[in-house]
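Q: Hi! First time asking for a complex rather than a single chain. Here are the components, and I think there are four in total. Is that enough to go on?
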Amino acid sequence: MSRPPQPKLITAEHNGVSVIQSQAHAAAASNAASLAGLQQVPQLVPADPSAAGGKAAPPSKMKKPSVDKDSEEYRQRRERNNLAVKKSRMRSKQKAMDTQQRVNELKEENERLEAKIKLLSKELSVLKDLFLEHAHNLADNVQPPADATSPAPNHC
Amino acid sequence: MSRPPQPKLITAEHNGVSVIQSQAHAAAASNAASLAGLQQVPQLVPADPSAAGGKAAPPSKMKKPSVDKDSEEYRQRRERNNLAVKKSRMRSKQKAMDTQQRVNELKEENERLEAKIKLLSKELSVLKDLFLEHAHNLADNVQPPADATSPAPNHC
DNA sequence: CTAAATTGCGCAATCC
DNA sequence: GGGATTGCGCAATTTA
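A: Yes, that's all I need. Here is the structure of the assembled complex.
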């Protein structure tokens, strides 16, 4: 997230092997599904021609048929990775929510600030008007008008 | 995002069948991978007891071993869904970025508003001081002080 | 009911 | 070697 620098060479072209996934898809809470005992053996089925619609063996383009899916260690790695993935995704989601929350907060703050600005502007306006009025009074005093329009000098 | 209402009954317990995925994992650009002709037959391996850790056949809870992976229509549906998924994810990502952008904008706006508030406050302060000063002058005029602190009545 | 959109999850490559 | 990310596909569910 905070580090998207590398060009990130998206592979493209793994190995052409088709794999068998346990894909229990159950496991409501955490993993455990794989612990259900029903570990489907990842054995690669040769894809029997008579069963398939046609096309027996694939292009036979497999360089590395290794990666023993049976390996105990493989399963462990997978499990660990799955965990890491879940964690990472949770974080990501959380961050997104936090960002959204931040937007809301900032919006509120903005409204608050705008209100304050409005208030201050009003105050300023009033004061300025007072000054203007005063200035007029002063002018009236300094230069006594020829007419008696002024009812009476407020003060001064 | 904007609609997380439903209780969302997370399935938990699909069907215990392990499926075979084509999982070509290649296909740099778009789909096409599945069109490589290597259609892995969906045949469910019975999970041979001798091969698995133990536990022969699972609860045998498979109601629908069907879902013919060979089906032409199946592949089409999958492809469409894959496309939809990619689209959805792109949108999601875009939205996240937009939200982040929004945060930045709002932060800038906030700073702008705060600056304005500071300015207005300053102006107000000045005007108020002027008023105070004026009031003092008035007071001085009305009630001449005993001392000669006042340099000279500005006016009035 | 069909089709698109979302969502959770697992795999593998890659990053670090 | 090993956790963290990320692109991708599958399948179930939700929306439209």
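A: The two ends of chain B are 69 Å apart (CA to CA). Let me know if you'd like any chain examined more closely.
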